[in-house]
Amino acid sequence: MSKVVDPHIHLFNLDAGNYDWLNPEQAPEWPDKDKIRRSYLEQDLLLGEVAELAGFVHIEAGFDNANPEREIAWLEDHCTKPFRSIAYADLTSSEAESQLQRLAEHPSVVGVRFILDEQAEAVLANPQFKENLAKLESMGLIFEAQLPLADTNAVNLLSDLMTTLPDLKVVVNHTGSPVFLTEEWMNSITQLAHHPECYIKCSGWEMFKRDWEVSAVKPLISFAIRQFGLTRVMLASNFPVSELSLSYADFWKRNLKEMKWKGFEKDMLCYDNAVRIYQIPVV
């Protein structure tokens, strides 16, 4: 049986956390968002006979952005599988350094995410943000970059920052939000791939098309592999948002079987790269 390390999942504890974004009046304005407005715990990561889940990376899920350590403390108390945490931190704040120091005291924390999305250009040009990225670099923490790679101005700014901070490890989320192959997206992928400490996670297909198909997304993944190389690309689920399209087991069935990767490709994309990049203590 194949082993999987999923480098992009979210767990929800609605009894203790806020999760404002799950409320219907909050963005994203998905008509079916109520389907995932419940608690999701580690035991909900069910793969059945498809594969063995050997570990995962938890990405901040809006538990309590005013006190992000609360989410990390809950995860470290709840989770039993090998895992790492990407915490929330407001990287536009002058208080970010003290927050980062507190987060780094938690053994599971290996990086932070501050979602860029439609504000990417403004945030990436913010002097305080740049200063806080330099702190991330000095602390050896990962920056999870969630932005549309079709935004070429923002990509240029991100590329400039990585040139200035060559040791900062940046992981692009959700393949840079492509709906389909476009010249802007391909140019951005090629540009970012020139930075050796930039990596990319291929996930989030359900956010752009609920009934996504392997035939539509494999060309995007294959292009990313051609530019980044096989060692800097990871396949990830975005659970439980992925459940708006299909079950967790069926998602990994598509990745492990229907995409028809070669054996060594499958191992690297679904296990080895995530273990190495996020330093996951798998047995």
From TrEMBL:
One Gene Ontology molecular-function label: hydrolase activity
Q: Where is the Amidohydrolase-related domain?
A: 5-279
Recorded hits in Pfam families, A to Z, give: Amidohydro_2
InterPro entries linked to this entry: Amidohydro-rel, Metal_Hydrolase, Metallo-dep_Lactonases
Q: Which residues form a coiled coil?
A: none
Per the record, the similarity remark reads: Belongs to the metallo-dependent hydrolases superfamily.
Q: What is this protein called?
A: Amidohydrolase-related domain-containing protein
Recorded source organism is Neptuniibacter caesariensis
Upper lineage is: Bacteria, Pseudomonadati, Pseudomonadota, Gammaproteobacteria, Oceanospirillales
